[in-house]
């Protein structure tokens, strides 16, 4: 909202308050001032001139030699190229030495041998935006009215001596989207009551509106108030300068004497109006209804709009003549030939106007006010004021009466609050007199019973309805900076991390220490991606109103997001990719309420584990590269229960021969495996390996106690064994047999060789293990180790039909 300082001076005494001071005080009371705009900043030596003669310059198709009276003894000769310059015009003249926007200095000069003592200015040369310049002067100079005094400073005539306070209005303070609303706010700050001039309305008693039009609405929920006045015998012409000046400083382009009045009233009252060419309506009926599906209207901007049943239209009983609350129709707008004007003042449902503006991408000054709500107390007053102004400026007559729908008169809300409550919430020690003065400054009537204020909230402040709203009013008017700062009194509780927070932080540090970079993905994805890599079967959770098709379903796994991130990096030539993410997945809890959330961690490796150097070749990542990271993570956490990796082919998007489910005892807590080659090809990735673990399950798992162990004093020993087994025998089966028969001194078992090929029977493989033995309390005897080692060999031969080599 652009509030004119000079306009405010019409309502209030601002002699002792500068615009800068006023802006600061407005900000302190809760409405932010974005900036102070000084339209005439830097401009000087601009005067009113009168063109005494115009002569076409020889040899030029557009230049004119003018003689201009600027209030001095002699006329000024000025060369002017404007196509609309004419004799006896009052114009704005920049004298030699004048400065224009952009620090452009006017000098005495010669054009084609002719002296030019200054410049006759157009509005754009004076700094006005193209969007506010009247159409008649778009390509030429701007002419001043006859009453402009030659030789006077021209800034005041154009409003360039004004200062514009640009207010950032929050949705709850829509009352400040009008000059009267801003005046009440400033009056509160300065302890003044705004003085609004009484409006004089003179109706033509010989004419009754019943003979012109009848209004009705389809739904009073959509249109609770609708009023119409008729002004006949108008002459549509250019608006007076004072009106154009106010519109341009507010950022609105002047159009004509009818439309400009409706815009002026919208700025003053905050009540949008619309003017119809009564004869173009071709009907004595106005009917407001919902649009039919795919109904069409051509709006004032010349665009054809296809409507739906959430759009509200004003019709002549048959066809739409306006898009209610947003924009008028081209088939009924006021033109230079209009003789009778129908002026509409109404209240439309905010939600419908908002939906219409959004769906049609058609926002206007009018729709922005309807969306936020209107002052129900000025719907008729704004209409009467507009009719009076149009009749005065356009020399028309007001038909007696108002065509309107039946509606109840709006009532002021009554809200109560006690002094004790105010002081308790604000931490103040205000007296009854101080609070009463706040309500008096706000122009709120009230009654006082003991320490209880019962406030009658005026209709112009429809944002106030509950006790908390009154509290806010008292706080901001009293002054936020006057409210004492106090610390809350309570028992202090030392903060600490819970088990889950501690484990999650450890996982972050461990994975980053292992070379993985953290990513953060959207929890919302497509239905197809949401189902991929899920640890357990679950229905997906879909949003009713998603942001987009790509963000409509809550994920069941973190891996799909990591794959997208890996593909993004690979597309930008980052081939060696190591990523992880900690986040929530969402399972259907089958109760129809909110989904069940679990916190998971997932990781991804792709490309080379080590880059090629002068001494070593590149080493691509494989299943065991990632498995080593996961094993070390789980081992470092200290999980007491056995962790098992069980081969599985149940995941469609993972390699069926290189995927394992991770079990904690009998419970599945994760997975690890290679992304299926078909999937990696689709994403243009190299061989890619992923894992995912349920953090919640890891938190609940029993942990081993961390105990200090001294470095052994006594030496250990080792034994190597090579086996020939069936190709179907897994490493896990061999490890289980060795550990269960290795004896109490067996400390570690390590696979160090695997061979299949020449000299090995088909269907078999050769594997070799190293077994380390240690007695931390004594030196091991050879006989003890040999005895345990023999038991291992016998068990391998018996249980796995292994051939010891």
From TrEMBL:
Cofactor note, please? Binds 2 magnesium ions per tetramer.
What biological process terms from GO does the record include? Answer: phenylalanyl-tRNA aminoacylation
The residues covered by the FDX-ACB domain are 712-805
Question: What Enzyme Commission number does this protein have?
Answer: 6.1.1.20
Q: What is its main location?
A: cytoplasm
Pfam family membership, one: FDX-ACB
On subunit structure and binding partners, the annotation says:
Tetramer of two alpha and two beta subunits.
Question: What PANTHER family is this protein classified in?
Answer: PHENYLALANINE--TRNA LIGASE BETA SUBUNIT (PTHR10947:SF0), PHENYLALANYL-TRNA SYNTHETASE BETA CHAIN AND LEUCINE-RICH REPEAT-CONTAINING PROTEIN 47 (PTHR10947)
What protein is this chain from?
Phenylalanine--tRNA ligase beta subunit
């Amino acid at each position: 909202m652009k509030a004119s300082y000079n306009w405010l001076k019409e309502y209030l005494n601002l002699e002792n308050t500068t615009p800068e001071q006023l802006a600061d005080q407005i900000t302190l009371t809760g409405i932010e001032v974005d900036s102070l705009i000084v339209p005439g900043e830097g401009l000087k030596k601009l005067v009113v001139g009168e063109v005494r003669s115009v002569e076409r310059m020889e040899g030029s198709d557009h230049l004119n030699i003018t003689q201009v009276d600027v209030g001095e003894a002699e006329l000024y000769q000025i060369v002017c190229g404007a196509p609309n310059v004419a004799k006896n015009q009052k114009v704005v003249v920049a004298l030699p030495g004048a400065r224009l926007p952009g620090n452009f200095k006017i000098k005495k000069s010669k054009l084609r041998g002719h002296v030019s003592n200054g410049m006759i200015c157009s509005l754009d040369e004076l700094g006005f935006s193209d969007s506010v310049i009247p159409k008649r002067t778009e390509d030429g100079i701007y002419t001043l009215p006859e009453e402009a005094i030659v030789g006077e400073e021209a800034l005041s005539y154009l409003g360039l001596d004004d200062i514009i306070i640009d207010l950032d209005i929050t949705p709850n303070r829509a009352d400040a989207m009008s000059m009267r609303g801003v005046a009440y706010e400033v009056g509160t700050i300065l302890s003044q009551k705004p003085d609004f001039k009484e409006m004089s309305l003179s109706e033509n008693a010989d004419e009754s509106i019943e003979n012109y039009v009848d209004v009705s609405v389809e739904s009073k929920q959509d249109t609770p108030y609708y009023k119409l006045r008729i002004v006949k015998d108008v002459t549509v012409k250019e608006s007076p300068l004072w009106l154009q000046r106010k519109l341009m400083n507010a950022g609105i382009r002047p159009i004509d004497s009818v439309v400009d009045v409706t815009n002026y009233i919208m700025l003053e009252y905050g009540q949008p109006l619309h003017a119809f060419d009564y004869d173009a309506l071709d009907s004595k009926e106005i009917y407001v209804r919902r649009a039919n599906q795919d109904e069409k209207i051509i709006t004032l901007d010349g665009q054809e709009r296809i409507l739906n049943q959430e759009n509200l239209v004003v019709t002549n009983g048959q066809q739409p003549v306006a898009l209610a609350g947003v924009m008028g129709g081209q088939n009924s707008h006021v033109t230079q030939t209009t003789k009778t004007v129908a002026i509409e003042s109404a209240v439309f449902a905010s939600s419908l106007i908002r939906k219409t503006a959004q769906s049609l991408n058609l926002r206007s000054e009018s729709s922005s006010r309807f969306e936020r709500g209107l002052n129900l107390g000025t719907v008729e007053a704004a209409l009467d004021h507009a009719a009076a102004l149009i009749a005065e400026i356009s020399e028309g007559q007001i038909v007696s009466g108002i065509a309107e729908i039946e509606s109840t008169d709006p009532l002021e809300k009554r809200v109560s609050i006690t002094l004790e409550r105010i002081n308790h919430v604000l931490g103040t020690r205000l007296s009854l007199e101080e609070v009463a003065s706040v309500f008096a400054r706000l122009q709120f009537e009230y009654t006082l019973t003991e320490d209880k204020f019962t406030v009658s909230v005026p209709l112009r402040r429809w944002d106030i309805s509950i006790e908390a709203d009154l509290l806010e009013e008292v706080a901001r008017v009293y002054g936020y900076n006057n409210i004492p700062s106090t610390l809350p009194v309570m028992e202090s509780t030392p903060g600490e991390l819970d088990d889950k927070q501690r484990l999650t932080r450890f996982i972050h540090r461990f994975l980053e220490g292992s070379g993985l970079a953290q990513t953060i993905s959207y929890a919302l994805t497509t239905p197809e991606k949401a189902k991929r890599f899920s640890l357990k079967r679950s229905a997906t959770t879909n949003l009713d109103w998603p942001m987009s098709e790509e963000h409509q379903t809550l994920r069941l796994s973190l891996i799909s997001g990591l794959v997208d991130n890996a593909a993004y990096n690979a597309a930008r030539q980052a081939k060696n990719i190591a990523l992880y993410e900690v986040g929530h997945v969402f399972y259907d809890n089958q109760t129809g309420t909110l989904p069940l959330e679990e916190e998971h961690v997932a990781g991804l490796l792709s490309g080379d584990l080590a880059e090629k150097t002068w001494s070593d070749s590149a080493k691509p990542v494989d299943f065991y590269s990632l498995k080593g990271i996961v094993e070390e993570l789980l081992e470092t956490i200290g999980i007491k229960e056995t962790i098992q990796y069980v081969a599985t082919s149940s995941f469609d998007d993972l390699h069926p021969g290189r995927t394992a489910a991770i079990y904690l005892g009998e419970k599945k807590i994760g997975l690890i495996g290679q992304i299926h080659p078909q999937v990696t090809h689709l994403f243009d990735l190299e061989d890619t390996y992923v894992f995912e673990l349920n953090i919640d399950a890891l938190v609940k798992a029993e942990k081993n106690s961390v105990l200090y162990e001294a470095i052994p004093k006594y030496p250990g020993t080792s034994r190597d064994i090579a086996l020939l087994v069936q190709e179907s025998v897994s490493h896990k089966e061999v490890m289980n047999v060795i550990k269960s028969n290795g004896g109490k001194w067996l400390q570690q078992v390590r696979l160090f060789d695997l061979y299949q090929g020449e000299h090995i029977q088909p269907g078999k493989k050769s594997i070799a293990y190293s077994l380390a033995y240690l007695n931390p309390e004594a030196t091991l005897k050879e006989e003890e180790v040999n005895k345990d080692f023999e038991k291992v060999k016998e068990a391998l031969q018996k249980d796995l039909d292994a051939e010891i080599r």
